[in-house]
Design goal:
Length: about 1450
C-alpha cells in the first residue's frame, strides 16, 4: 500500500533562533504547513519545501499570551488560528502577495517551451510570497486542549469542561457560543439515550477531538481516558442538540484521528495499542472494529515498552495510518490493520555492529500532499543533544547571523533560502528547523482502484512510477530469445496496431516474476513541475502503457517507445482536471474529467497512438461529478456524486482518418437509498460473478457478461446482481440495437473490512474455480476468496450445497495484484540497507535511519484454499481445483506446505483435536502422483518429534519405501531410508538400504550408489557423515574406469610390448595374489565386507549377462577393484561360455557395426572432391598416415615395426589368400552381403554420428543413393583403388571412437587379470591380430589351465562356423590369423580334425583364376557382379596386373591401418 523509500530529507530553517519547532499543521490541500515554536509561527511551502514567511511575537505580547501551543487552518487557507498557553486564540490573516509577486520562481534557459503566458503559471510553479497579519485575540480564560476547524466555525475545547464555537469571521461577542460538557447526555447507544446509564462528567473535559464529515459527529477523548462520539442532532451545534455515545470498558485513551472515507475512529491508548471504532448504523453505539498493535511475534523486545500512543495520522487518501508513541518510533498500518512498516525493529533500531539506537521521539507529524511525504518534527531533547556537542561551531557562526537579523522586521519576515538535503549545513545546529521529510511510494490502488482488475503491480512516487511487468520484448516476442533485445527499434512497435489484447492478457509467470527489480519510469519533468502532485495512475492490461494525472491535464507513457506523450497545447492541459480517475480500454485512455472552460463534467477517450489533443478525443457530457471510473470488457462504469451508477458501452470506430471510440449510455442505477455519503464509496467494479452458477454451467459464454456490480462502501463489499427473475427474452428474438438491459436486484453485503477487490473478465474452462472467483484483501484478516462450487461432470448440483463459498486465508505480504491462473499473489515489501558512515558525535538525525528500498514479493495461496475446502468437507471441489493447477511448477511445493502447516498445528497442539485434518489431507494427496515425495520432503523439513504423528496418518514409512521401489523412484526411496534409520532398528534400515543399493546398482544410478555405500558404512559404524574411503586398486586410476582413459591420451601399445616380451609378464599377471587386499580387508569392519560382497555379486551378475559396458561403468563410477576381482574370478565367472553370443552382445552394447566385405560399390561413393578432405581430416592425422599414402613399409612407426616382426613376417604369404577370399565371397554372396551392409549403414547413420565411419558415409551420401564411380584418372589422391577400398572398409567397420577407447581399456584390464577368453572376444571385435596372436602364444604356457585352452579353441571354432554362415565380414580377419589358429588346433591334447578350417580356405583358393595368379585385387567382374543386384552399371576397372606395385606390398595399407588404430586410438584422432 504505502512504502518508505530512501533516507529522510532534513529541512533547515534559515532563521537564527533559540526556539525549536514542535508543532506542524497542514492546510486543507496540504500545499502549506504552519510550523509553531514558542513565539514563532512559520509557513512552509510543500514543493519546493521552503520557508515562506515567519511571524515572530514580541516579548511583551509573548508575556501576555503565553507560548504558542496549537494551530488550525481555515478550510479555504485564508486564516490560521493559534492557541496560546494562557487561553488565548490568536487569529492571523494569511495575505497573498500580488499576482506578480512570488518568493521563488523557476528560472528557465532561453528558448524553453514553458513561457510565462502559461495559464496558472504563477500558482503552480512558484512559491508564493505570503504575509501574516494578526487580528484581535480571543480570550477563553482557560487552557486550550483542542482545536477543530469546520466550514464556518472553529471549535475550541478548554480545560474547564467547555466546548466553544467561534465563528471564523465575526469574532465579536455575538459570534461565540459555549457549551458545557456536563449538559451533553452520554449513553452506550442512541436507543437507550433517554433512559440508560449516563456518564458522570463533573470536572471532566475534552482532551482531544476530531470531526468526521461522513459520520457527521465528533470523536472525542475525555480527560479521564474515556472514548466518546458526539453527534449534532440538527444542523446547528447547540447544547440541547448534542448527543453522545461512549465506548464501554476503555478508560486509557490519549488521542484520536478519524477516517472520513471508511467512517472509522482511531483512538490511541496508554497501553500503546490503537483501538479502531466504527458506529453501528442500527443502534448508533460505538463498536470495536479492530486493534492496531505491535505483536510479540514480530517485535518481542519492544511490543510492550512503547509507552502511550502520542499521535495518529491518517494519510490524505485514508488508506493508511501512521502512529507514534511517547518512546518514539513510527509505525504504519493499512486501514483495516495490515502492518506495513515499523521503525522500532531490525535495521531501524540496531546498528550494523549490533548496538541499539535510540528511537527518534516525535513531537508532531503531518502527511504532505497526496501522501508522498511525511513531515516529522522530532522532540526538542533530540536536538538539544546535538547542540551541546556542537556548541563551539555555533559560536563562530553567531556574529554573521546577527548582521543578517538587523534587516528583519519585528512582526514578520520573508524567508530567504532553504538548503535541501541539509547534510551540507550540518554544523549549524542553531539554524535547524529540524523537520524530517520521509518519502513514500504508494500503490495506484489507493486512489485509482480501477487498476484492480489487472495483474500488474503499479506504484507511484512523487516523480516516478514503479512497475512489475516484464520487458515488452519478452512479452510480445516469445520466439525471440535474444537476451539483450530490450529497446524496441523505432519501427518495432507500429503505433496504430496495438498488441492483440487477448494474446497478452495473462503474461505468465516468466515476465511477472522474472526478477526482483522494478521497471522505474521517471515522470516527465515538464508535466510534473506545473501539475504536481500526481493524483492518479493507471496501467493497461498488457502492462505496456501507463497514464498519470496531476493537478491539471494528464500524460501517458509507452514502454514500446520509451516516450511520454503530453498535450501539445498547454491551454488544453490546464483547462481540464481529472476527477474520477483514469483507465485503459484497449489502446484508449478513458478519463473522467472536469472542463473549466465549459464548466462541465466530461468522459473523454484519447487514442494512445495519436497526438494528445482534444481534436482526437471522443467527448461525452456527464450530468454530475464523477467520483470513480472502471472498465469491464467493452463497458465503462461510472460512480457519480449523486450516488448513481452509470453504465456506458464503448465501440471502436475506424471510419475516420484516425481511430475513435463512440460511447453510449446503457443504464443508470440510483444507489442513494443505500449510500449515506458519496465519499464513502472506495471502489466500483463490474464483474461476471453471480451467486447461482446453474446458468453458467449450461452456457459458459455468459461468464463473460457483466452480471453484477461490486461496490466497496467504506469497507463493506456490496453486490448488485442482474435481476433474472422476470420473463427472460431470448437474445435472438430482439434486434441488437434496442436490447433492454436487465435491472439490478437490491444489494447484498458480501464481506466486511474490504480494502481491495480483484476479479478478471477472462475465462478459462480448465481453471474456472480461480478465474470465476472474487479475491478480497481484508487488512489484518488476510485475504478472502469467494469461490464458485461446480457440480462434478455436469451432475445436478445438490440442493443443500450453496453455489459459492467465502474462504479466508492469511498471507505474509500485502497483496497488490492477483495472478488468477497462476494462483499467486503479488505484492511489495520494504527492505532496509544499513549505512554507518556518519557515526559519532556529529551524526545527523537522518543518518539514524537505514536506507529503505521496496522489493517485489509474491506468495502462493493455493494450499490455504485447498485446506479450507477440506475442513468444510468439500474434498471433491478441492480435488477439482488442485487437478486444474497440477501443471504449475510449484504445485509440489503447495502440497508440501499444506501437509506441513496442518502437521505443525495438530502435532504441537496442547489439547487433543476432536476432528484432526491430517488424515484427510494425507488421503487427498494420495490422489496425486507426487504423494510419496511430498510426504518424505515434508518429514525431512519437520522435526523428528512430529514424525510419529505424521506417519500415523499417512502410513508406515516401510510401506511407503517399498512403494517407491515399485514405482522405480529411487531418489525418493533414499529419502525414506533416512526416516527409517531414525524410526526403526538398524537391522531394518540395513535391510531396506540393501534393497535400494541393489536396485540402484541394477539401474546404474551411480550417485545414489555412492551415497548408499556411505550410508551402509555409517549404519555399521554408527556415524552418518563418514566419507566413502578411497579404494585401493591395482588399476591405473583410483576412481577406476573409463574416465581415466577418456580424458588422457595414452597408448596401449606399451602394455602390448610388455606382454609380447614373453613369459615374465605372464608370470606377473598370473601370480598377482589376492593377498594384500584380503589382509587389508581383515582389518576393516565387517560392514565393508558386507558392501564388498554386494559389489562382487553385482559384478558377477553383469559378467554372467555379458554386460561388459555396464561392468566398465560400474567399476569406474564406484571405484570397484576390477582387476583384482577378475583375478580371483578368472576360473569361475570370468569365463566365456558362448563366444558367438558374447561377440554379438558386445557389438550391440558398444554400437559396433558388424564388418562387411569390401566390394566395388563401397569405394564408389568416394567422390573425388570430397575424398581428399575427409581422409585428410579424419585418417591422415593418425600415426600411420604416411604408410597409408606412401604405402612403404619403412615409413611405418618405429615401435610398431619393432614389436610386431612375427606378424609382418608371416604376412606376405597369406595376403593373396585373404584378398582372393574377399573377392570370391563377394561374388557368391553378393546380394545378401550388400543388402545387409546398406541397411546396417543407414541404421547407423540415424543412430550414431560420432566421428567415425558413419561420418564418412554421410559425406559420401550413400544414404541418399547418390552413387558416383571414381574414375582413376580423376582421382586426385595418390591412392590405388584397392587402398581406397581398404580405407573405406576400415572406416565403415569401426564403431564410435568412445566405444573403441572403452573396448581397448577393457582389453587392457582383462589382459592384466589374465582372462584370456575375454581377450580373444575383444580382440575379435577390434579385429586386432596382435591380440589374438599374443593370447594364443600365452596358451602354450604351463600356468594356463587346460580347460581354458579348450574353451578358447572351442569358442574360436564356434565363431568360425558362425562367420561362415552369418557374418562373412569377419572372414578376412580369421584368415589373417589362420596360422596361429592352426597351431592352436595342432597343439590340442585330444585330436581335433585339422580340416576344421580347411574347406573354406580351399574353396577360396579355387575361387578364381586370378587368385592363383597372385594378385591381391578383386577382379573387375567380381566387383561388377557384387553390385549388379543393386542395378548400378559400373565402368570396368583397370586390368588386375597393371598396378605399379608388387603384390606382396599390397597389404600394408590394412596392416598399417590396423596398427595405426592400435597406437593412435587414444589420441582422439577420429572424433
Amino acid at each position: 500500500m504505502y512504502f518508505l523509500t530512501g533516507w529522510p530529507r532534513r529541512l533547515l530553517c534559515p532563521l537564527r533562533s533559540e526556539e525549536e519547532p514542535f508543532h506542524i499543521q497542514p492546510s486543507s490541500q496540504r500545499f502549506y504547513f504552519a510550523v509553531l515554536s514558542e513565539t514563532q509561527l512559520s509557513i512552509w511551502f510543500s514543493r519546493p519545501s521552503v520557508l515562506i514567511v515567519s511571524y515572530i511575537e514580541s516579548a511583551k505580547a509573548a508575556a501576555q499570551f503565553g507560548f504558542y501551543q496549537k494551530a488550525e487552518w481555515k478550510p479555504d487557507d485564508s486564516m490560521i488560528a493559534v492557541a496560546s498557553a494562557k487561553g488565548y486564540i490568536l487569529l492571523f490573516d494569511v495575505l497573498g502577495g500580488g499576482d506578480d509577486k512570488s518568493l521563488y520562481e523557476p528560472v528557465y534557459p532561453k528558448g524553453s517551451p514553458r513561457v510565462r503566458v502559461t495559464p496558472g503559471y504563477k500558482e503552480e510553479q512558484c512559491a508564493p510570497a505570503l504575509s501574516l497579519e494578526m487580528k484581535k485575540p480571543v480570550d477563553l480564560e482557560a487552557p486550550i486542549t483542542s482545536l477543530q476547524s469546520l466550514q464556518e466555525d472553529l471549535l475550541v475545547c478548554t480545560a474547564d469542561g467547555y466546548l466553544h464555537v467561534l465563528h471564523w469571521d465575526g469574532l465579536g461577542s455575538n459570534g461565540r457560543k459555549s457549551i458545557c460538557l456536563t449538559t451533553i447526555p452520554f449513553s452506550l447507544d442512541l436507543q437507550s439515550a433517554r433512559g440508560g446509564p449516563s456518564l458522570d462528567l463533573e470536572e471532566v473535559y475534552i482532551r482531544c477531538m476530531e470531526y468526521c464529515v461522513t459520520l457527521d459527529g465528533f470523536a472525542v477523548v475525555l480527560s479521564d481516558g474515556r472514548l466518546g462520539f458526539i453527534t449534532p442532532l440538527s444542523n446547528t451545534i447547540t447544547a440541547d442538540q448534542l448527543q453522545g455515545v461512549w465506548a464501554a470498558d476503555v478508560n486509557d485513551g490519549t488521542c484520536v484521528a478519524v477516517n472520513n472515507k471508511y467512517r472509522l475512529m482511531a483512538f490511541g491508548c496508554v497501553s500503546g495499542s490503537v483501538l479502531v471504532y466504527m458506529i453501528d448504523t442500527t443502534t448508533g453505539s460505538m463498536q470495536l472494529s479492530h486493534k492496531l498493535e505491535l505483536t510479540p511475534k514480530h517485535f518481542p523486545d519492544i511490543y510492550n515498552k512503547t509507552g502511550p500512543v502520542k499521535l495518529i495520522r491518517w494519510s490524505p487518501d485514508y488508506s493508511v495510518v501512521m502512529v507514534t508513541w511517547e518512546c518514539g518510533g513510527l509505525s504504519l498500518w493499512s486501514v483495516f490493520g495490515a502492518h506495513l512498516i515499523c521503525t522500532l525493529g531490525e535495521d531501524f533500531s540496531y546498528r550494523s555492529d549490533g548496538t541499539k539506537k535510540d528511537p527518534v521521539k516525535i513531537s508532531s507529524m503531518s502527511w504532505g500532499a497526496e501522501g508522498y511525504h511525511l513531515w516529522v518534527i522530532p522532540n526538542k531533547q533530540e536536538k538539544r543533544k546535538q547542540e551541546q556537542q556542537q556548541e563551539e561551531q555555533q559560536q563562530k557562526k553567531e556574529e554573521e547571523e546577527e548582521n543578517e537579523e538587523k534587516e528583519e522586521k519585528e512582526g514578520e519576515e520573508e524567508g530567504q533560502d532553504e538548503e535541501e538535503e541539509g547534510m551540507a549545513t550540518a554544523p549549524q545546529p542553531s539554524l535547524q528547523a529540524g523537520i524530517l521529510q520521509f518519502h513514500f511510494i504508494k500503490s495506484a490502488l489507493t486512489v485509482n482502484p480501477c487498476t484492480s482488475n489487472q495483474e500488474q503491480v503499479l506504484l507511484h512516487g512523487e516523480d516516478r512510477l514503479y512497475l512489475t511487468c516484464g520487458d515488452p520484448s519478452q512479452v510480445h516476442n516469445n520466439s525471440d530469445t535474444h537476451p539483450h533485445t530490450h529497446v524496441y527499434p523505432h519501427n518495432g512497435s507500429p503505433p496504430h496496431n496495438p498488441p492483440d489484447p487477448d494474446s497478452c492478457l495473462s503474461q505468465g509467470l516468466s515476465t511477472l516474476l522474472g526478477h526482483k527489480h522494478w521497471h522505474v519510469v521517471q515522470i516527465h519533468s515538464t508535466y510534473l513541475e506545473s501539475n504536481w502532485p500526481i493524483r492518479f495512475a493507471a496501467i493497461d492490461t498488457a502492462g505496456q502503457c501507463m497514464a498519470i494525472a496531476g493537478r491539471r491535464g494528464f500524460a501517458h507513457y509507452s514502454l514500446f517507445t520509451r516516450k511520454w506523450k503530453l498535450f501539445g497545447n498547454i491551454t488544453q492541459e490546464q483547462n481540464m482536471t481529472v476527477t474520477g480517475g483514469l483507465a485503459w480500454w484497449k489502446d484508449f485512455v478513458v478519463v473522467a474529467c472536469y472542463n473549466f472552460t465549459d464548466q462541465q463534467e466530461q468522459l473523454r477517450l484519447y487514442q494512445r497512438s495519436s497526438n494528445l489533443d482534444n481534436a482526437f478525443a471522443s467527448v461525452t457530457k456527464l450530468h454530475s461529478d464523477t467520483l470513480l471510473l472502471n472498465v469491464f470488457r467493452d463497458l465503462i462504469i461510472l460512480f457519480r456524486a449523486d450516488c448513481s451508477i452509470c453504465l456506458y458501452s464503448i465501440e471502436r470506430r475506424n471510419d475516420s482518418p484516425y481511430p475513435t471510440a463512440t460511447v453510449e449510455l446503457l443504464q443508470e442505477v440510483s444507489m442513494s437509498r443505500y449510500i449515506p455519503h458519496p465519499a464513502l464509496v472506495v471502489s466500483v467494479t463490474l464483474t461476471s460473478v453471480r451467486t447461482e452458477t446453474g446458468i453458467t454451467l449450461k452456457a459458459p459464454q455468459q461468464a463473460c457478461m457483466a452480471e453484477s456490480i461490486m461496490l466497496n462502501l467504506a469497507g463493506q463489499l456490496i453486490m448488485l446482481q442482474r435481476d433474472r427473475s422476470g420473463p427472460q427474452v431470448r437474445e435472438k428474438e430482439t434486434p441488437a440495437n434496442n436490447k433492454k438491459l436487465l435491472p439490478f436486484c437490491p444489494p447484498v453485503v458480501l464481506a466486511q473490512c474490504v480494502e481491495n477487490v480483484w476479479t478478471t473478465c477472462r475465462s478459462n474452462r480448465k481453471k474456472r474455480h480461480l478465474l470465476e472467483a472474487l479475491w478480497l484483501s481484508c487488512g489484518e484478516a488476510g485475504m478472502k476468496v469467494w469461490l464458485p462450487l461446480f457440480p462434478r461432470d455436469h451432475r445436478k448440483p445438490h440442493s443443500f450445497l450453496s453455489r459459492r463459498i467465502m474462504l479466508p486465508f492469511h498471507i505474509n505480504i500485502y497483496p497488490l495484484a492477483v495472478l488468477f491462473e497462476d494462483a499467486l499473489v503479488l505484492g511489495a515489501t520494504n527492505e532496509t540497507v544499513l549505512y554507518d558512515g556518519l557515526q559519532g558525535s556529529s551524526e545527523p538525525l537522518e543518518a539514524l535511519f537505514p536506507y529503505c528500498t521496496v522489493e517485489r514479493t509474491s506468495q502462493i495461496y493455493l494450499h490455504h484454499i485447498l485446506r479450507q475446502l477440506l475442513v468444510r468437507n468439500l474434498g471433491e471441489q478441492a480435488l477439482m481445483l488442485a487437478q486444474s493447477c497440477a501443471s504449475l511448477p510449484y504445485f509440489p511445493h503447495v502440497m508440501e506446505l499444506m501437509v506441513h502447516v496442518v502437521l505443525e498445528e495438530e502435532a504441537t497442539s496442547r489439547e487433543p483435536i476432536p476432528d484432526p485434518l491430517l488424515p484427510t489431507v494425507a488421503k487427498f494427496i494420495t490422489e496425486f502422483p507426487l504423494f510419496l515425495q511430498t510426504i518424505v520432503h515434508c518429514a525431512r523439513k519437520t522435526e523428528y518429534a512430529l514424525w510419529n504423528y505424521l506417519f500415523a496418518a499417512v502410513g508406515n514409512p516401510k510401506d511407503l519405501f517399498e512403494e517407491c521401489l515399485m514405482a522405480q523412484d529411487l531418489d525418493t526411496a533414499a529419502s525414506y531410508l533416512i526416516i527409517l534409520q531414525n524410526m526403526e532398528a538398524p537391522a531394518v534400515s540395513r535391510q531396506h538400504a540393501t534393497l535400494l543399493f541393489n536396485t540402484a546398482l541394477e539401474q546404474g544410478k551411480w550417485d545414489l550408489c555412492r551415497h548408499m555405500i556411505r550410508f551402509l558404512k555409517a549404519i555399521g559404524s554408527g556415524e552418518m557423515d563418514t566419507p566413502p574411503p578411497t579404494p585401493t586398486t591395482q588399476e591405473p586410476s583410483s576412481t577406476g574406469g573409463f574416465e581415466f582413459f577418456r580424458n588422457r591420451s595414452i597408448s596401449l601399445s606399451q602394455s602390448a610390448d610388455a606382454i609380447a616380451t614373453g613369459k615374465f609378464n605372464l608370470q606377473k599377471t598370473f601370480s598377482m595374489p589376492s593377498g594384500p587386499s584380503t589382509k587389508g580387508r581383515d582389518v576393516e569392519c565387517a560392514e565393508n565386507m558386507y558392501i564388498d560382497m554386494m559389489l562382487w555379486r553385482h559384478a558377477r551378475h553383469l559378467l554372467e549377462q555379458v554386460r561388459l559396458r555396464d561392468l566398465g561403468c560400474f567399476s569406474a563410477q564406484l571405484g570397484f577393484e576390477l582387476i583384482g576381482w577378475l583375478c580371483r574370478e578368472r576360473n569361475r565367472v570370468a569365463r566365456v561360455e558362448d563366444f558367438v553370443y558374447a561377440l554379438k552382445k558386445l557389438h550391440k552394447d558398444f554400437l559396433w557395426p558388424f564388418p562387411v566385405i569390401p566390394g566395388g560399390s563401397i569405394c564408389s561413393p568416394l567422390k573425388n572432391g570430397r575424398c581428399r578432405t575427409v581422409l585428410s581430416t579424419r585418417l591422415l592425422k593418425s600415426q600411420s598416415a604416411d604408410s597409408l599414402l606412401n604405402s612403404d613399409m619403412d615409413t611405418a612407426p618405429p615401435q610398431a615395426a619393432s614389436s610386431n616382426h612375427s606378424w609382418l613376417d608371416g604376412l606376405g604369404q597369406r595376403s593373396k589368400d585373404m584378398d582372393t577370399a574377399s573377392s570370391s565371397h563377394s561374388n557368391q554372396h553378393s546380394p545378401q552381403t550388400h543388402d545387409a551392409f546398406l541397411s546396417l549403414l543407414t541404421n547407423k547413420v540415424e543412430e550414431y554420428s560420432v566421428g567415425s565411419a558413419t561420418d564418412l558415409t554421410e559425406t559420401s551420401s550413400v544414404v541418399d543413393g547418390d552413387w558416383t564411380m571414381v574414375d582413376e584418372n580423376s582421382s586426385t589422391l595418390s591412392l590405388s583403388q584397392a587402398e581406397l577400398e581398404h580405407i573405406s572398409m576400415e572406416l565403415a567397420n569401426k564403431g564410435p571412437h568412445k566405444s573403441q577407447v572403452q573396448l581397448r581399456y577393457l582389453l587392457h584390464v582383462f589382459m592384466e587379470a589374465g582372462c584370456l577368453e575375454w581377450c580373444v572376444v575383444i580382440g575379435l571385435i577390434l579385429r586386432d591380430a596382435n591380440v589374438i596372436k599374443q593370447v594364443i602364444g600365452f596358451l602354450d604356457s604351463p600356468e594356463v589351465p587346460q580347460d581354458t585352452v579348450q574353451s578358447v579353441r572351442n569358442g574360436l571354432l564356434a565363431v568360425d562356423t558362425w562367420v561362415s554362415t552369418d557374418c562373412l565380414g569377419y572372414k578376412p580377419f580369421l584368415n589373417l590369423v589362420q596360422p596361429q589358429l592352426q597351431d592352436l588346433m595342432d597343439s590340442a591334447a585330444e585330436q581335433v580334425q585339422p580340416e576344421a578350417f580347411q574347406p573354406s580356405s580351399q574353396s577360396l583358393k579355387l575361387g578364381g583364376p586370378e587368385g592363383l595368379g597372385g594378385t591381391a585385387v578383386p577382379r573387375p567382374e567380381d566387383s561388377r557382379g557384387a553390385t549388379a543386384p543393386l542395378g548400378l552399371a559400373l565402368p570396368s576397372l583397370e586390368p588386375a596386373g597393371s598396378f605399379p606395385r608388387p603384390p606382396s606390398e599390397d597389404c600394408p595399407p590394412e596392416q598399417t591401418e590396423d596398427q595405426g588404430e592400435e597406437e593412435g586410438a587414444y589420441d582422439c584422432t577420429l572424433s
